[in-house]
Amino acid sequence: MVDTNDAYHTPQTITLLAVFVLALAASFYMYEFILQVSVGVMTGDLMRDLSIDAAGIGAMSAFYYLAYTPMQLPAGLLYDRFGPRILLTIAVAVCAIGAFLFSIAHGFLPVAFGRFFMGVGSAFSFIGSLVLLTRWFPARYFAVLAGLVQLMSSIGAIAGEAPLAAAIQHFGWRGTILALALVGFALALVIWLVVRDSPVKNQPRPADHRRMSEWSRLKLVCKHPQTWLLGLYSFCSWAPILVFAALWGVPFLVIAYGMSTTEASFLCSMIWIGIGIGSPLIGIWSEQIGRRCYPLFVSALIGLIAMGAVLYIPHLPVFLLYIALFVVGLSASGQSLSFALVRDNNPNETVGTAIGFNNMLVVAGGILFQPLVGIILRLLWDGTVENGVPVYQIGHYQIAMLVVPLCYIVGMLMAGKFLHETHCKLYRERMGS
Q: Is the predicted pLDDT of residue 138 greater than 70, yes or no?
């Protein structure tokens, strides 16, 4: 949770150390996204080696989000108390421990336990980057640099698709994940040696009586109807990404188009490229037209059209698949703009809590829909097995992933009818324009 009351003095200049500090924090964000999406490119290997089916894959993958989602609010509170240096170091190490446990595990529960550890550590990545951004950089650069931090997640997700699939093909999934664990331990060490909580040593914290209690902030945020309506939109905008791009998209494309896992992974990377490009662009568009809800509505609409084409129009030409999946990524940038609307709808003393709450709902779709799709696939399975791996037909995936277009429809309804249009007014006032 970013303390919007500027507990630490805002720097007026950018230093090389500040750039390095933020780059390390953003590298953690990229690293955790590689781990987050990694299951999607090894579903067949995991089902064969661990003797589990689609329902087991969905449940195992969801253990990441079972930890990540509820940890969003506690992570912010812990950053306020202990600072980013020690927490980022511990968090990266916890991710690396989770990857190590995952790589040596045999059976569903040990692997799920490794995913849970990854989720616990990853919960600190994005918030930690924003905390360091507010302490090391002038306020006028916040929006641009926050967008670049968001871009790092897309780079991590892209690395977790086709490149990771190629590595797994050559070194096996256990060796590849073990290598990622070693990278995590090295990153934790570098963060501990380089990162500092702020550019000013021994900078005093604000007196406790000047700050609302965290419980008071949370109650105030939860009493605001827009918190829940916007949270529902954010949930619906990102759930399709967690369902398709992060887990079930690769096996669907393999079955639907007869391509290799590496080829399907490269196609899914187009979603993350779209997210990386779309996230800063939708913010610029919103500011230019002075509206928030219209871009959110358009994002959900184009997501519905593009994902509907991918899932339900048979035998699309490959070049149209690339375009459609890129547009799916562009549509997901609506969740990035939702944080601007959070800022518009909340006073300074609660905006940090509101951002943490909204981010918790953004990723909650992984808990619900990743295992749900797997359960539906199990129920529809006709018993076909190839090389020890259950085979699910195209129709099975199309039925199981009906939750995806449903999410877009709900998102359109929220943006079109229920979200309060602020016309960027409050955001501009806070920025001093």
A: yes
pLDDT > 80? residue 53: yes
Assign domain 12-193 to its CATH architecture: Up-down Bundle (1.20)
Is the four-CA dihedral 282, 284, 287, 288 of positive or negative sign? negative
Q: How long, in residues, is the chain?
A: 433
CA dist., res. 192 & res. 25, Å (int)? 11
pTM recorded for the entire structure: 0.78
Only one residue has tokens 């940038």, namely 333
Q: What is the three-state SS of the chain? A: CCCCCCCCCCCCCCCHHHHHHHHHHHHHHHHHHHHHHHHHHCHHHHHHHHCCCHHHHHHHHHHHHHHHCCCHHHHHHHHHHHCHHHHHHHHHHHHHHHHHHHHHCCCHHHHHHHHHHHHHHHCCHHHHHHHHHHHHCCHHHHHHHHHHHHHHHHHHHHHCCHHHHHHHHHHHHHHHHHHHHHHHHHHHHHHHHHCCCCCCCCCCCCCHHHCCCHHHHHHHHHHCHHHHHHHHHHHHHHHHHHHHHHHHHHHHHHHHHCCCHHHHHHHHHHHHHHHHHHHHHHHHHHHHHCCCHHHHHHHHHHHHHHHHHHHHCCCCCHHHHHHHHHHHHHHHCHHHHHHHHHHHHCCHHHHHHHHHHHHHHHCCHHHHHHHHHHHHHHHHCCCCEECCEECCCHHHHHHHCCHHHHHHHHHHHHHHHHCCCCCCHHHHHHHCC
pLDDT in tens, 377-386: 999 999 888 8
Domain ranges of the chain: 12-193, 215-433
Among 271, 234, 228, residue whose Cα is nearest residue 411: 234
- For domain 215-433, the CATH architecture is Up-down Bundle (1.20)
- Residue whose C-alpha is closest to residue 2's, from 122, 129, 87, 88: 129
Would you state the structure tokens that stand for residue 6, as one six-digit string?
Answer: 């500027």
Work out the pLDDT band at 140, boundaries 50, 70, 90.
Answer: low
Distance CA 184, CA 189 (A): 9
